[in-house]
Amino acid sequence: MNARSLNLPHVAKGLSARLLVLTIFFVMLAEVMIFVPSIARYRLNYLEEKLANGHLAMLALQATPDQAVGEAIEKRLLSHAGAYSVALREPGERKLILMQETPQRVDATYDLREAGTFQLIGDAFSSLLGPGDRRLRVIGTSPQDGSAMVEVVVDEAPLCRAMLAFGERILGLSLVISLFAAALVYLSLHMLLVRPMRRLTESMTRFREDPEDLSNHIRPSARTDEVGVAEHELASMQERLTAALHQKARLAALGIAVTKINHDLKNILSTARLISDRLSESDDPEVRRVTPTLVKAIDRAVNLCVQTLNFSREGPPQLNLTRFDLGELVEDVGFGLPASEHEGAWRNMLPEGLELEADRDQLYRVFANIGRNAIEAGASRVSVRGEETESGLSIRIEDDGPGLPPRAYENIFQPFAGTVKQGGTGLGLAIARDLVRAHGGDIRLEQSTAEGTSFRIDLPRRQQHGHRGASAGRKRAAR
Known about the structure:
alpha+beta; Helix Hairpins; 3 domains; five-stranded mixed beta sheet
């Protein structure tokens, strides 16, 4: 499966290109922030150099016997200093001046002795953005002699040209640095982030197309960073989803199988019901005594077929709400459980008069599933206790069996996953949980040790109108 079929973005529009552009932008932004103080410093050095050249010219003037030179020498000294005029004042000395005969105009005066950082930056940009034809008077101390004050008048045009040339060099260097840094960052992020992200995306896309194909599962790398964690989590998610899909497929197959055998099984049970009706007319009192129990068992078998089919369908179980005594229901469950090696293994320890509104047949299945599991696991005693609470009823089913293995704890209420019994399907507790939750309650495993297992069931004493209405609505829809 290629990148085009996966609808991955083109390289120019993908994350790599965006990272490259952003890296260049941020590096250039950093260079601009560096350029601002740099250009101010460059202007300051340029003007200080003019002051130093002016000081040297004045030293040449001081070397003459009468501190005076001819016009030609004066012009040459000013030319070498790059100034129209130069003035020098030293402590205890008279002021010396070199200048042309005609006084020159001055457009701006800058005293470097009083200039701060922000003022220097502002002066630098005023030179860059200004007309560039001004004449500047610059005042400051000589770089070679801090006690000598020098004043020069210079053209701004050479300064502007020098600053522009400096800016072009900074810009060119910034571009080279930004491209080089961007290339390194791009390659690093592409190897460390973009390629693994594309790998994750490709795995998710292939898994979406065929989640049951194990070859579409990602194989996590040995990385321990965030990308490695994402790979391991994706692999775990894919494994769990595949297992869930297998469970759903088994549930679907179960629903189809039950649908096919439901009709024939009903006919078989109808025949058994007819025979049981004749047994009720028998002259043997013992036969007449056990016949109602047999009839109830056959009715529950018919109902079990229907309820198993409903479990394989979507939606909560349908409830047929009635008000009944919970103790009587638990007694009936004891009659229907398989025979145990220990007499009286099923013990009803509920208080008398404990009534609730629920679906009697559905709760029968809940208690029967838990009791059957305990007895088949080897329990010699299964006790059912209950008490009233503020929210309803709290029921505990405790046994003295060998307990559940630790591997069964996590999936005990999951269909086909919570069984530890050879040949078991794991549907019993899954169905029990769905039925209890359909009543607005909950079931949980309180403990399971070598001394026994305990389940707790919480049920409301009266169903909410929403449950009753939903149940009635589903029945009307079924009709």
